[in-house]
Amino acid sequence: MRHILLIVIFICSACEMALEIDVPKEKPKLTLNSYFTTDSLWVARVTLSRYILEDDYNYADVKNAIVVIYQNNIALDTLEHDGYQSYVSKNNRPVNNGLYEIRVKAEGYESVSASSFIPFAVPIENVEVTGAENNYTVKVKFQERLGEENFYIIKAEMEETRIDNQTGQTYVGRSPIYLESDDPLFNEEGYYYDGFIFGDGLIADKAVSLVFKTSQFLPEDSKLIIYLRTLSSDLYKYQITYDLQQTTSGDPFAQPVSVYNNINKGYGIFAGYSEFTYVVNN
Amino acid sequence: MKYFLLFLCLTYSTIHAQKFTISGSIKDEESGEHLIGANIYNLGTNQGTAANNYGFFSLTLNGDSVRLRVSYIGYSPKTINFFLAQDTVINIGLSNSSLLEEVVVTGTIEDKIQESSRMGIMDIPIEQIKAMPAFMGETDVFKVLQLLPGVQSGSEGTSGLYVRGGGPDQNLILLDGVPVYNAAHLFGFLSVFNADAINHVELIKGGFPARYGGRLSSVIDINMKEGNLKKIKGEGSISLIASKLTLEGPIKKDKASFIISARRTYIDILARPFLKNAGDSEGDAGYYFYDLNSKINYRINERNRVYLSAYLGNDKAYSKYKETYDYDARSTESEDEAGLRWGNITTALRWNNIINKKLFSNITATYSRYRFDVFAKYNEKITEAGKPPVFEFYNSQYVSGIRDYALKMDFDFVPTPNHYIKFGAQGIQHLFTPGVFNYKSNEEADTTFGQKKTSANEFYLYAEDDFLITEKLKINAGLHASGFYVNSKFYSSLQPRISGRYLLHKNLSAKASYAHMTQFIHLLTNAGLGLPTDLWVPATENIGPEKSTLTSVGFAYYLNQKYELSLEGYYKKMKGLIEYQEGASFLDIEKDWQTKVATGVGQSYGSELLLQKKVGKFSGWLGYTLSWTYRKFDEVNNGKWFPYKYDRRHDTEIALSYKLKENKEFSVVWVYGTGTALSLPTSTYEGANGSVQYYEGRNEYRMRPYHRLDVSYTTKKKTKWGERSWSISVYNVYNRRNPFFMDIGSDRQGNKKFIQYSLFPVLPSIAYHFNF
Q: Which of A235, A275, B134, B759 could disulfide-pair with A271, CB 3.0 to 4.6 Å?
């Protein structure tokens, strides 16, 4: 296919003429990025967007913002800037299925807000690992929560005790396990970093059984850790569109991708998730 | 004597009460070529008809004196007087007015726009097409169609047609009744139709008669010439990028004829010396296209005639390199070749039969194939002293296309002058190859992946009647019923069609039409580059057919017996449209196309104004379109309506030609169009692991408006062997930098800018034409 591109570019460039065009400049807006889950303190990052033609590659931190978390329109916590990059809560943690709102004010910029929730974690019932060196099959079973639309990320890591060659000391290290699957569910959806992201639109039964393969070696005394992250629809849409924009960037044949944005009057994402981990001793 | 007079009176009154049918054909007197759409009128009663696509007409009148007026644009009209006392067959010949000295055709009053029941239909005389300024000296039928209101061009310089908010896949392009699936040469900058081989071009953009179906937005019905039945004739031309030659003549005088027309570019030959100088290794790269039209026509007898016509065209862009190098005692020879090819083949075998004076049939068997492939080959031979040679190779090929076999039967039945009934049926067997990748090397066995070939069967039945209800009211009503069977899934569709006119005044009529259309095949097309890589795919069990309804109302006015003025407003709704999802790309060939597309709806509405003068020293038209076109897909633009890429608020065309003398003609074309819609990122912000580009919405921005002026001057001269002419054309006279695409780039200081890329500056060209 690259040949087509080269030939077309060759033909077109033979007589192309470039002309600069002025497109109205847009003022910077507040960008808010905050993922939240039950195990963590609130963390939010506030930066400024840039006009697309600005040459600066950094996004300016907004350190003078007032960042407040609300639930049922009642202020729960005001996040404080940690002096580095983020606004954090001191001891407040979100809870399952709670609907939260975040409001951010900063002088000189239009205030922004967003709301999202943490879906219930879906427990993994069983993980079965079969096979031998460099050819393992991993079967993951869990029960779908009926009556609601669910979105997941599933990924795996290996935990093992390693020896530091220089000091001779032992430590516990984790490394990603790259999973593969022939399940048609994943043809429809996408590969996400070291795992898969998918919705339950194609899952017919309540009892879900997913089969993965990996060709990575799992030592005898290691542990296989499966993470099943349940995403809010906001986070799912953001992740899918964000990944798509990154992977198609530079492909002249690809349609432009709008990344999902749930920040009113601004940019970014405010979204919750929950996570269940299942450990298999090899 | 008394009884004799009484007998005469009775006989006379009986004859008067009786109706008789005049049937036959209307031809070019010199060549024997049928004149499609020529008019025949009885001046006494104002009853008339037009010759059909095969030149046949049938007109039933009361037994009486008749004054038949026969006319066709560009030909001198003829009047025939006789007493109609029995069914009569007459074959009428008309003389081309350009062959007559001192003849200025002032108009064909019988061909009145306000009297036709049809709407949204344009006939462009082929001579008018040839008279327009030609891009790089190559006359292009589609580029002239782009100058009509309601028809928009795609990207700069391309021949794509976007009719009333529809995509290029929604045009049914017929060459002698056979669908042509990709009408593009030179990556869309020229269409595949060689004007020298064409007899007649008709564009239908609304008020679709029931006989047409299978596409939503337009029908472009092109008929090839039949071949001169009287004598051998030839014509040809040499332009900057291509040459063509056409030969036609009798195989047996007045019985059988042939025509063959060939065209080839020489871009590859012209570019070769530059490429040779530029490279060190032994290599070659280039591009060419060719096409060949041919037709044989055999008149079996007065009632039966057969035709065999074929079109073959191919484009190829390629690069080839050969290298030899030695290292120590080892010698390596390698050959590398890559390229892309695409082309159409169409064939039609047609049998015309005049069953009786009122019933005409046409049976056509057709074959059509469009194929696109990209290939890469690499061969290497390594020789080393004392060792057997080692061979390495790599072959890959990506193929897509569509192939059709079809059988069609059409009948024309003319029971009375007030009814013109057409009915018929067609069956098509499609084979779709929507993208198969084949790979083979010395290390890997033959590997094939990509989409599966899919076969599908399509059929339709239709009946329509062009019915003169009263002198003022005339309608064309019909029904088109179609079906499509694919992968055990059956789709069917009933499509009512109606159009009509009401005469408000002898020169003014109000018109209205409604058409329901269904399209069972889709074109998967990328963001507007119009490449031959676009894939034809069928409706499937998951992705249904496309459907539309089109409602039009308008007025037609015949002004000063010279000008035709039409004003039409339309509203079109479309559903089942497909579009690549955000981020989807045809480069991702391993993924099933059905998972890469979104289905949605569209709407287009607007109004079109056309002021046209068809005959005389000064002819041409002025067109203006005001329109809005939108699309909506759940998976695109957050499910909100967005402007279609070719949503163009204003579109204006002026196309004029003026005959300074009989042998000197000046033409000018000016076009203006609102800028093409496009998606541009306006901001960037911090994302999860990097930057995010923010798009306000799909197609939120507009490129700069498009406008361009083209002029041409043609001078002809009679020679001993025939006639020669020189055409000097200038494309984009005032060197407007029209937008082709926009991107983010950098200026000379390295600052980021939106850069608009243009293709064609002012381009003068010259072409030499000859005929003998």
A: A235
Interface ipTM = 0.88
Confidence at residue B403, expressed as pLDDT on a 0 to 100 scale: 95
Q: Does B715 touch chain A (CB under 8 A)?
A: no
Q: At residue B635, what is the residue type?
A: E
Beta strands in B209-329 (DSSP E): 218-224, 233-238, 242-252, 256-265, 282-299, 304-327
Six token digits for residue B13: 């009154």
Residue B214 CA to residue B230 CA, distance in Å, equals 38
A17 with B759: Cβ contact below 8 A: yes
Across A83-92, B1-10, B116-125, B323-332, least confident range: B1-10
d(CA B312, CA B344): 6
pLDDT in tens, A99-137: 899 999 999 999 999 999 999 889 999 999 888 777 889
Q: Which residues contact B262 (CB under 8 A, 6 or more apart)?
A: B244, B245, B246, B290, B291, B292, B293
Decide the pairing of beta strands A30-36 and A267-281. parallel
Residue A266: what residue type?
Answer: G
Confidence of residue B481 (pLDDT cuts 50, 70, 90): very high
Q: How many CA atoms lie within 13 A of B40 on its CB side?
A: 30
Q: Smallest CA–CA separation between B530 and chain A, in Å?
A: 11
β-strand pairing of B447-450 with B56-62: unpaired
Name the strand (E) or helix (H) holding A132. Answer: strand A124-132
Check if the beta carbon of residue A272 is closer than 8 Å to that of residue A100.
Answer: yes
Residue A225's alpha-carbon distances to A124, A161, A255, B425, B668, in angstroms, are 11, 14, 37, 65, 75
Q: What's the pTM value of the predicted model, to 2 decimals?
A: 0.82
CB contact under 8 A, B698 and A11: no
Q: Could you give the CA distance from residue B697 to residue B678 in angstroms, rounded to a whole number?
A: 9
DSSP A72-104: TTEEEEEEEE-SSS-EE-SS----TT-EEEEEE
Residue A187's pLDDT band (boundaries 50, 70, 90)? low
Overall size of chain A counted in residues: 282
To 5 degrees, how large is the angle CA B531–CA B532–CA B536?
A: 115
Do A26 and B682 lie within an 8 Å CB cutoff? yes
pLDDT tens, B665-683? 999 999 999 988 888 888 9
- Across A127-131, A145-149, B492-496, which has the greatest mean pLDDT? B492-496
How far is the CA of B391 from the CAs of A254, B335, B379, B384, B626, in angstroms? 38, 12, 7, 12, 63
Q: Answer yes or no: is pLDDT of B108 > 60.
A: no
For B49, other C-beta atoms within 10 Å of its C-beta total 20
* CA dihedral sign, ordered B135, B137, B141, B144: positive
| Distance set, CA A185 to CA A143, A191, A201, A204, A242 (Å) | 16, 11, 9, 11, 20
Asked whether the beta carbons of B52 and B34 are under 8 A apart, the reply is no
Q: Distance (Å, rounded) from C-alpha B665 to C-alpha B451? A: 52
| Identity of the residue in A18, A187, A242 whose CB atom sits nearest the CB atom of B755 | A18
User: What pLDDT is attached to residue B264?
Assistant: 92
Which DSSP symbol is given to B142? H
Surface of A (10-49) touching B: CB under 8 A: 11-12, 15-23, 26, 28-29, 31, 33, 45, 47-49
∠ Cα A119 A124 A125 (to 5°) = 135
